[in-house]
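#data-curation
PF: Archiving a pair of folding outputs for the training set. Convention for this channel: one message per protein, sequence first, structure tokens after, nothing in between. First:
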Amino acid sequence: MAQINIGAIKFNWKGPYNNSTAYVVDDVVSSGGSSYVCILASQGNAVSSGTYWQIMSSAGTNGSNGTDLTSTLSARGDIVFKGASALTRLPKGTAGYVLTQGANDPEWGEAGGGKHTLLATTTISGSPTNVDFVNGTNGVVITSAYEYYVVDFINIASATDVQMLGMQYMRNGSAYTTGNYVYIGEEWYRASGSSSQNRRSAWGLNNYTFGGVGASNASGEQNLNAQLKFYPNGYGAELPNWKSETIWWQDNNQQVINYFSGTSVGTASEMSTFNGFRFFWTGDYNSNVTNKNAWSNQGKIKLYGVKA
């Protein structure tokens, strides 16, 4: 019976091109990052010869088409995206954050709302008198890009007994101490077998107080926790306001919970230079601050900016 040679019925991978190897039709080789298929048997004819070889797949052009990102990515966890005119690096996000889409570019945000941006974290050490967050200092960014701010106080305490956390916002890097702070709120106490509730308010102070009674620093009771939401309201367009929720131990083994709201009754234009916060401990709660006391070296404060 007659036999017919139909040649190769599949491509034959031969590895890197070798000038001393004899190649037949449908042999495939690699050279310079590209691959080539033999279309005419030969030996010693380079893959650049269109008589004997046809390109099967072309190598990319490193750098110009994104195949080489070593010049863009610089740290573990980095992500690359197409920016306005070039490939752009998005640094690794905070643990627990998720990737969200901004107006034009991707950004990191908290899971759920996706709009919170962690601006700073301070772990209390060195027994400071004030803990400040000021735009441009230690990486803090406080600008009109954020509609309001959230500050979390986690397991903090004063080094002195019967003190309360206070706040003054910053203007041009200095604490605003004019007597225009106002607050009102409810406070609940719980001791063994009894409880009470009080409404508290004050007008014309030089600070905002987070509570109407002092916090204990006795062993096992040094754990004030709070959250502040601060609304600049247009950075000069309107007066600012804020609200806080605070839990702490008062002396005599009483746990205290409160909800306070505050504002400043100066002029709206004063907020045009708003650029930060100052936090401190004082025994002058419910009145103008004249004395401050050191922080206990425990806990941390986290500052977030929130966009629309």
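PF: Second:
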Amino acid sequence: MKRVLVVIAILLVILGGIYYLYSGLENKAIKIFSAGSLSEPLNEFSLLYEDTYGVKVNIEYSGSVDAIRKIIDAGKYADIIAVADYSLLDKMLYPKYINWYIGFAVNEMVIAYTNSSKYSDIIRENPGEWIKILLKDDVKYGFSDPNKDPCGYRAVGVIALTSIISGNFSILNRLLISRTNIDYQTIGDEVILRVPYNFKVYTDNIVVRPKSIELISLLESGSIDYAFEYKSVAVQHNLNYIELPSEINLGDPSKEDVYSKVKIILMSGSESEGEITLGSIIYGISILKLSSNYDEAIEYVKLLLS
């Protein structure tokens, strides 16, 4: 009888240990702050990670600048940060909040539209007419808030680059400056854009949202006709899009000397003011120093990079 009781006791210990390990694994979770433009690929990838490692992934999407400010201004916790502009990690988080960062994906800017967009038939046949179309009084176009989302400051940067390349600054003035409180100055062949901390739009022709992914539903519903987006986002949502020349689409690393002619001062007039030099689009990822799930976060990044 004693031998049976001992065996039962051993089995209970073993089963208890297995339950403890299993329940601990089930309760394990990593938190990610991410750029909204990564939502579809990261959602899909995180399911693979959860199936592989049994660790839950919680992702909070926003504009990349907002994602970073959750950490440095609001003191919120995350294990991993993934942004649409890897240079933000160096400018805003390194070395105080992170020890390293990695560029892990590239993209390019396009102008997305649908078959219901005004003058879509003209754009489809003559994509180079996009400036004339956006300037029409009955056309609405959108971009994300430059102070909150890299896609937003890249959108205004694309307009500035277009003026530089063409030598026609009426494009910048008519598409952007006259319609918002953004200002600019030229120094040689460079342009410096200033986006006030209280960024405002003065016309119904421009629609702004905190992150670029929020413009998709407006396009699909016909609330706007065109939107400055990342090519990957347009493809993921089966949207039509205008491919821009490599000199302005921020998708060609060999054109860095051209892209860098545009500098953008964000949150101008505030204590958070900072300058961004336009460059090719490279996403970045890192693990926060304060992560309490560092091993699990490392496996996530390793699997993502593989």
